[in-house]
Write a structure and sequence with these properties.
alpha+beta
Length: about 200
């Protein structure tokens, strides 16, 4: 499948078959996420793969009782590692400077920004770095189509409740849930803005 085809055919799936998702397919999705770009190559994404029904039910409850989440055979909890982001950004931008990919002035600016970020409250940093995780999640969403799998971005959730399920500390920022499975529906394409409406 061409990338353009995957982009056109992707749908948010909210009805899943009960068929299990092969482990190798899940691994391939995580590998796609691993290869995503991130600011300063910080790679702050972290993933929890959930298959057991009890935990899937808890995740559905933490997402305002969206029951279809628990019906998916797999739910990937997509997170940002805050301290990993800070450490990764610092070493990543210096590496880019050493190979000449980024000018010294930009390295200095970004290092200064990282030092300012370190002074912020940890709950302020999470939303700032979520965009990096979002890129990785979209890699998974598109790769899933190679295996005829459906996904659905879930951002409507109570982060504290999700973290409580896994006993995560404040260093882990929950970005999204990604229910995953073989679709039991074929949603029609939803309305999109015209191309000319997007251009400023």
């Amino acid at each position: 499948m061409e990338t353009s085809e995957a982009i056109v055919n992707r749908r948010s799936i909210r009805k899943f078959k009960s068929d299990p998702v092969p482990d190798e397919h899940v691994t391939a999705l995580i590998e796609a996420a691993r290869l995503a770009p991130s600011g300063c190559n910080a790679q702050p994404w972290r993933f929890k793969i959930v298959k057991d029904l009890k935990t899937r039910n808890k995740l559905a409850e933490a997402a305002y009782n969206q029951s279809f989440i628990a019906q998916a055979p797999v739910v990937i909890v997509c997170c940002a590692d805050v301290s990993g982001y800070i450490e990764g950004s610092s070493s990543g931008i210096q590496d880019l400077g050493k190979i000449g990919a980024v000018e010294d002035e930009i390295v200095n600016i970004i290092c200064a920004n990282i030092n300012e970020t370190k002074k912020m409250e940890i709950n302020e940093i999470g939303p700032r770095i979520a965009v990096n995780v979002a890129i990785a999640v979209e890699h998974m969403v598109l790769r899933a189509l190679d295996f005829n799998l459906g996904t659905c971005w879930i951002r409507a959730l109570e982060e504290d409740k999700v973290k409580e399920i896994f006993n995560w500390d404040e260093n882990i920022y929950v970005v999204a849930l990604l229910p995953l499975g073989f679709p039991a529906e074929e949603p029609v394409p939803r309305t999109r803005l015209k191309l000319e409406d997007l251009l400023l």
